Amino acid sequence: MSLRQKVLDEINAERDRQEAKWGRQDHQPERWLSILGEEFGEVCKAVCEASFPGYETTGDWSQYRKELIHVAAVAAAMAECFDRREETSGEQVLRHQREQCEKIKATLDAKRRKLHVDYLSKVNWDNKSLSVLDAVREAYIDSHDGKNL
Q: Is 143 exposed, middle or buried (0-12, 13-18, 19+ CB in 10 A)?
């Protein structure tokens, strides 16, 4: 296994741990930055504790590496959240457009059926007292609440 693959596997395992602990996280970018900043702060703290005078220096860089994995995992979670939001917003727009089209189609179908029924009821089939055009015109006017359009 390559070194890169080893690190990526650790990041993936950390993502799994985070999701097990916190569930799926869907935050706004500013909230994500505060989470990422906290993790970056832990990287900085680990560097100070491992090397700078004035701290209880341990010379142990293992915490530094561990926190780097956390930073990378949080960054991956941020990207996942962004991609989910992009997919969802696109899907929501399409779903909304489909719903609107279906409503319009249903309305037009209902008006078409009513117009047809009204037309059939206006025609006096026995003596043909109304012409077909008059029947259609009257049915259309009736379907628009008497407005002669």
A: middle
